[in-house]
Amino acid sequence: MFKGFYTAASGMLTQQRKTEMLTNNVANSNTPGFKEDRASIRTFPELLQKSVEKSLSGATKRSEIGSLATGVYMQEAIPNFVQGDMRDTGLKTDMALIDTDVPGNEDNKKGSIFFNVQNADGDMRYTRNGNFTLNSQGILTASNGYSVLDDNNNPIQLSNDNFTVSDDGVITGSNGETFRLGISYTDNPQMLTKEGDGLYRQEDGMDLDDAYTANGVEFQVKQGYLESSNVDTSKSMTEMMTAYRSFEANQKILQAYDQSMEKAANEIGKI
Asked: Where is the Flagellar basal-body/hook protein C-terminal domain positioned along the sequence (predicted)?
């Protein structure tokens, strides 16, 4: 069996998965608060090849030929939590988080802050998408219908959309009602699980820390703005073309192996 057969096949699968990831990035390039994914590609262990020769006297001679790669695989898609540009919408229900100073962990990885939202089952989720609206009951909701929470993890209910939001996240309604947006912080956002619709959750099911009381965390809430996606469309398209060319190259190698195997089975077997 040709060892390179599986090496080329693993390369095709890896580039296919990378292309799917990049396609999703480009498709969400206009989604507020979307964080692009980056591929983490790893190699399988290499094999060390040796040749064994026997002389006429019966002595055995071993010599190294070199290493043989056994393929690659896409280990995971890692979100890039770099903040996107701010876009002025003029809508009072739109809000954006500005990372003034958000420290990371001991590995010098950047931390991140999120709006707190709640799904229909009452579970906490986190998002950077501040494209909010008021539903028929006056509850502030995210674009997917989840309830936006205050700092006590209660839904925010307003009498109308004539409200203001201060830089420190305090919402003041036209009737004098006040709420403070629920905003959470993590020093390692890579540990969050991506759920789709711009939502994240803790892997262990625990809630994130309160951003207002977290040590060293400074941020602002900007009303009438949305955080744009941080996808670099031109870069993503270039990477898609590179992945496609790499897929094609592995495909041709696989075809060459297939032809060699066909000859080995049909022609050499006749001799």
From this structure: 222-266
* Per-residue pLDDT tens over the stretch 92-115: 999 999 999 998 877 767 899 999
Contact yes or no for 131/141 (Cβ under 8 A): no
Environment class of residue 89 by beta-carbon count within 10 Å: exposed (0-12), middle (13-18) or buried (19+)?
middle
Q: What confidence tens digit (pLDDT) does each residue in 57-85 have? A: 667 777 777 676 677 888 888 899 999 99
Question: CB burial class (10 A; 0-12, 13-18, 19+) of residue 66?
Answer: exposed
Among the listed residues 37, 54, 35, 47, the one whose alpha carbon sits nearest the alpha carbon of residue 3? 47
> Distance of alpha carbon 221 from its chain centroid, rounded?
24
Burial 246-270 (b: 16+ CB within 10 A, else e): bbeebeebbeebeeeeeeeeeeeee
35's tokens = 């964080």
**Structure tokens belonging to residue 206:** 């625990």
**DSSP structure class, residue 31:** S
Tokens 């020769």 belong to 53
Residues with Cβ within 8 Å of 97's Cβ and at least 6 positions away in sequence, in order, are 113, 114, 115, 128, 130, 183, 219, 220, 221, 222, 227
Q: Using alpha carbons, select from 121, 83, 41, 27 the residue that is nearest to residue 219.
A: 83
Of 214, 216, 221, 139, nearest in space to 181 by CA: 221
What CA–CA distance (Å, rounded) separates 144 from 262?
54
* pTM for the full predicted model: 0.81
